[in-house]
Design a protein that fits this description.
The complex is a heterodimer of chains A (about 240) and B (about 325).
Chain A (H helix, E strand, L loop, with lengths): L14 E10 L2 E11 L4 E5 L6 H8 L7 E6 L2 E2 L5 H6 L2 E4 L11 H12 L4 H7 L2 H4 L10 H13 L5 E5 L7 H14 L4 E5 L3 H7 L2 E6 L2 E6 L7 H6 L2
Parallel strand pairs in A: 3-8, 3-9, 6-7, 7-8
Antiparallel strand pairs in A: 1-2, 1-4, 4-5, 9-10
Helix pairs in contact in A: 3-6
Chain B lengths: L1 H19 L6 H24 L6 H19 L3 H23 L4 H22 L1 H4 L5 E2 L15 H24 L1 H11 L1 H6 L4 H27 L1 E2 L11 H9 L6 H19 L3 H15 L3 H30 L1
Antiparallel strand pairs in B: 1-2
Helix pairs in contact in B: 1-7, 2-7, 2-10, 2-11, 2-12, 3-4, 3-5, 3-10, 4-10, 7-8, 8-10, 11-12, 11-14, 12-13
The chains are: A alpha/beta (about 240), B mainly alpha (about 325).
């Protein structure tokens, strides 16, 4: 199915968004957004609160239906596909709210991820997040914010996703955990493409190969070279 | 072996105690408790695990009861076959209405199930009166044939069958609770969006839960039919729709043993208080309000953590004593 705006996805892209327009009822919140992610690439979306970053991620994973435009993974159109099928294709979303299944233990939370993907290689997950090993029998409701974030990312990693979309991963976390996550994202990007929505500009600039800036639902900048991906440059678009 | 025993011991203990209580409690009371607990466990699973409150359980109970009754009244005499027909009738009804009902949110789900119970009631009482015999009901106690090994046409042997059936049902629900599917059910209750992002269809999780729960309810209906040898539309009366929900909450919503404790408490209260007071239903109503206000976790939900604490403290003390012995 060709994209609505006639712009074809790039050949090498694992995830392509073209001409995406999204509304909540009558109110349009995203206007003609284009975004591309290549395998193993770290892409960041920056913008102020209400710029439409979370809406963009939710539209990609099928949680919101766009008014127009296309989202494709390879040759597969994702618009209209249920969220769970998109997740099964290896496009995983880690929401912003850091809510895990509070009645389930860490082990059960991971088992849910494993059963859906048939990937029981927890060593890889605990390799990234060793602390989870000690928390296996603790219920999700009794984890700290950082521990919950580790669990959510770890659970999403099961099944070796092609693309991981992570919404505000460092929001409200201690600097030591932010530093740990930064290292993890660096390691992860060797095998998985990452789309990170983040307001922590030093972190974004340290790990991203491409940065998209959103303002009031419009894509106002696309930074793709190391020279321009600097906090002071990104700041201009916020 | 030890692991298997640890898995089974709670269920075996619960139903061994129920069986042993036949020494001092009347058999009809115990039969009613066991069947009522099977009736309630489906409702408890739906409410506690999936977050669905259903006021339509009498419809599925009636499907099981009338399935069995039709078989034993019109076609055959084997009570086991009758129970199988009843269970299949409940399964059929769940498979037909489930895909429509589980799309609804919890409050509308409760109402649509209530509507189904009313529809089934009027179907059995009026529309299908030619074959259901309306309010007179279907009497087939004398049609039920004796069966080899466990003759469930006799109340005392029926009690053994009911206990075995309950053990099987409880083992199945414990297996569900411990399984990934049980975790999926809890997850769909607490955060359905997150479950989608992991690759699960909430609809499929809920539909399976709905079918399992209501087929279990139909099993209880089929057992009622064989035990009483009689079925009337009263089984799906709109006045009785809250019973399984009340027993679920009374016992402890979503707990494994809540339905058994709730059924025992509810049937016991009903039997004892009705002998002492004329307007016993009013009294039970007030008593239930008090119990729910006093502890919203229900009887088993309140007792369980205390028992665990007691058991684990004893276990810890024993372990400490053993360590002390070893040092000496």
């Amino acid at each position: 199915m060709p994209p609505d705006n006639g712009v074809a996805p790039d050949e090498g892209e694992i995830l392509s968004v073209r001409g995406l327009t999204v509304s909540y009822g009558e109110a349009k919140v995203l206007f003609d957004i284009n975004l591309g992610v290549k395998p193993g690439q770290v892409v960041a979306c920056v913008g102020r609160n209400g710029a439409g970053k979370t809406t963009l991620l939710k539209s990609i994973v099928g949680f919101l239906k766009p008014l127009s435009g296309s989202v494709t993974s390879g040759r597969t159109p994702l618009v209209g596909m249920p969220s769970y099928d998109i997740a099964r294709m290896g496009i995983k979303y880690v929401p912003q709210d850091k809510k895990v299944f509070s009645d389930l233990t860490v082990r059960e939370n991971l088992e849910l991820g494993s059963y859906a993907t048939k990937d029981y290689d927890w060593d890889r997950v605990t390799g990234y997040f060793p602390k989870l090993k000690q928390l296996m029998d603790r219920k999700g409701g009794y984890l700290s914010g950082g521990e919950r974030q580790m669990l959510m990312i770890g659970r999403a990693l099961l099944g070796s996703p092609k693309v991981l979309l992570i919404d505000e991963p460092t929001e409200g976390l201690a600097p030591s955990i932010v530093a740990h996550l930064k290292n993890v994202f660096g390691e992860l990007s060797k095998s998985t493409a990452l789309v990170i929505v983040e307001q922590n500009l030093p972190l974004v600039c340290a790990i991203a190969a491409r940065v998209y800036a959103l303002k009031e639902g419009h894509m106002v900048a696309e930074l793709a070279d190391r020279e321009s991906i600097r906090p002071e440059v990104c700041e201009r678009y916020l | 072996m030890v692991k298997a025993l640890r898995w089974w011991w709670g269920i075996l203990l619960a139903f061994s105690l129920t069986g042993a209580s036949a020494l001092f409690l009347p058999l009809p009371f115990l039969n009613e408790v066991v069947i009522f607990s099977i009736y309630t466990i489906g409702c408890s699973f739906l409410l506690g695990r999936v977050g669905f409150i259903s006021f339509g359980q009498p419809a599925y109970l009636a499907a099981g009861a009338y399935g069995t009754a039709f078989y034993l009244f019109y076609f055959g005499a084997n009570p086991y076959a009758g129970i199988l027909v009843g269970v299949l009738a409940g399964l059929g009804l769940s498979v037909i209405v489930g895909p429509l009902f589980v799309r609804l949110r919890s409050d509308y789900f409760a109402l649509v199930n209530l509507a189904l119970a009313v529809i089934v009631y009027y179907l059995m009482q009026k529309v299908l009166a030619d074959i259901t015999k309306g309010d007179n009901g279907l009497w087939f106690l004398t049609n039920i044939a004796s069966t080899p090994v466990l003759d469930i046409s006799r109340p005392n042997q029926f009690f053994i069958f009911a206990l075995l059936a309950a053990v099987a049902v409880w083992a199945f629900y414990k297996y569900l609770d411990d399984s990934i599917y049980g975790a999926c059910c809890l997850a769909t209750k607490t955060n359905e969006d997150k479950l989608k992002f992991l690759g699960y269809s909430n609809y499929n999780v809920r539909l399976l839960a709905f079918i399992i729960a209501n087929t279990t309810t139909a099993l209880a209906g089929a057992m009622y039919a064989v035990y009483l040898g009689f079925v009337s539309p009263e089984i799906t009366s709109p006045a009785r729709v809250a019973d399984p929900v009340v027993v679920t909450v009374l016992g402890g919503t979503g707990t494994l043993y809540g339905p058994l404790i709730g059924a025992l408490a509810y049937t016991g209260m009903k039997d004892v208080i009705s002998k002492l007071i004329g307007n016993w239903e009013l009294f039970i109503g007030f008593l239930l309000v008090f119990i729910m206000l006093a502890g919203e976790r229900g009887i088993w939900g309140t007792l369980q953590p205390r028992l665990e604490k007691l058991l684990f403290r004893n276990h810890a003390m024993t372990a400490a004593d053993e360590r002390g012995e070893a040092r000496r």
